[in-house]
Write a structure and sequence with these properties.
Layout lengths: L1 E12 L6 H7 L1 E17 L7 E4 L4 E3 L8 H9 L6 E7 L9 H16 L6 H15 L7 H8 L2 E6 L5 E5 L4 H10 E5 L6 H12 L4 H26 L2 H16 L8 H13 L4 E4 L7 E5 L5 H9 L15 E5 L3
Parallel strand pairs: 3-5
Antiparallel strand pairs: 1-2, 1-11, 2-5, 2-6, 3-4, 6-7, 8-10, 9-10
Helix pairs in contact: 2-3, 3-4, 3-5, 4-5, 7-8, 8-9
Length: 334
């Protein structure tokens, strides 16, 4: 039996520049934070049963791997040569489809378990690239590379993505008091909305692959977002909380130019209200956009903000930074 734990993530800057349609031209940059919120996976090879069984949000019990509907599991098992005799269960601290990179997080944790079943401990970069290859190349998903890398590495992390797709991973270390201040003043609220990130990313990809003004506008917006990513990283390192708040708003404005699906009218109205009345200086929808979690920065204590968001049925997520990335928590012989 193998059990793994893999962190979800929040993008702080540079989101969208990790898509091939952008980085092939200008290179990408991501600054992100792994959360102490996880997807847990347990897997084993049963002694006498030849079936392939999955327990979790979408349970399945089939004769062979090729019969699975779960495309991530199917692709991973086939990559590792497993066609029969396999069982796995998954559970997440937070529901999927909410902008925290849950699909790639699941895949990285699942691959980590498959390697552990073979007695192997893969290099984190190789594990991230294996997940990228399965999602982007094998399954042809129009997504980027940050979620797989953040799940593998964890931490407060930078990803420099070269035009050839190679990723250089960096770690950002903050003074503990500075880190605590950023977390205390950067609130995350659950909107209750869920969406498929691929729908929004398809808009960005199609814009970058088009001709004329649409491509120029998308490239200009993503260039501004990448520049913001560097500035946001520098603000965190310098302990510039107020600058971080202002840049969050700048990011919101730039991101909304990429797709009409980035936000919802209700979220736009709520954001305008908390900026005008509750001391919020900046915010963003986490992930590709369209729902999930809303990040808001407030320089004050934020109690009034938290009460107001609760009145809108949007509870606050209390969080910390995960430092370990994907881990094997249990490795036990059958």
């Amino acid at each position: 039996m193998i059990s793994t734990r893999t962190p979800l993530r929040v993008t702080l800057g540079g989101g969208g520049t990790d898509l091939e349609s952008y980085y092939r031209r200008d290179g990408g940059f991501i600054f992100a934070m792994a959360l102490d919120k996880y997807i847990h996976i347990s897997a084993h090879r049963p002694a006498f049963h030849d079936h392939v069984a999955l327990m979790g949000p979408d349970p399945e019990n089939v004769a062979r791997t090729t019969d699975l509907k779960h495309e991530l599991v199917r692709a991973a098992l086939l990559r590792h040569g497993i066609d029969t005799g396999f069982e796995a269960a998954s559970i997440g601290d937070i529901v999927g489809g909410t902008g925290l990179g849950s699909s790639s997080c699941f895949l990285v944790g699942f691959l980590r378990a498959l390697h552990a079943l073979k007695g192997a401990e893969p290099d984190r970069q190789a594990l991230a690239e294996e997940a990228c290859d399965l999602e982007i190349n094998v399954l042809a998903k129009g997504i980027g590379k940050q979620d797989q890398y953040m799940a593998a590495f964890g931490g407060l992390t930078t990803l420099d993505i070269a035009p050839d797709g190679k990723v250089r991973v960096g770690s950002v270390a903050l003074d503990p008091e500075v880190e605590a201040a950023f977390i205390a003043h950067t609130h995350i609220y659950y909107t209750g909305l869920r969406r498929d990130a691929a729908v929004i990313l398809d808009d960005q990809n199609s814009a970058m692959l088009s001709d004329g003004d649409r491509r120029r506008q998308a490239a200009q917006s993503l260039g501004a977002i990448k520049d913001l990513g560097y500035r946001i990283r520098d603000a965190w390192i310098a302990g510039d909380l107020e600058g971080w708040g202002r840049m969050l708003h700048e990011h919101w404005v730039s991101k909304k130019q990429l797709s009409s699906k980035i936000s919802w009218p209700h979220i736009d109205q709520l954001y305008d209200h908390v900026r005008a009345n509750l001391g919020v200086t900046g915010g963003k929808v986490i992930g590709a956009g369209g729902g999930g979690f809303l990040m808001l920065f407030t320089p004050n204590e934020g109690r009034e903000l938290e009460d107001y968001m609760a009145s809108q049925n949007m509870p606050r997520l209390r969080y910390g930074i995960d430092r370990g990335g994907t881990q094997v928590l249990l490795s036990q012989a059958a």
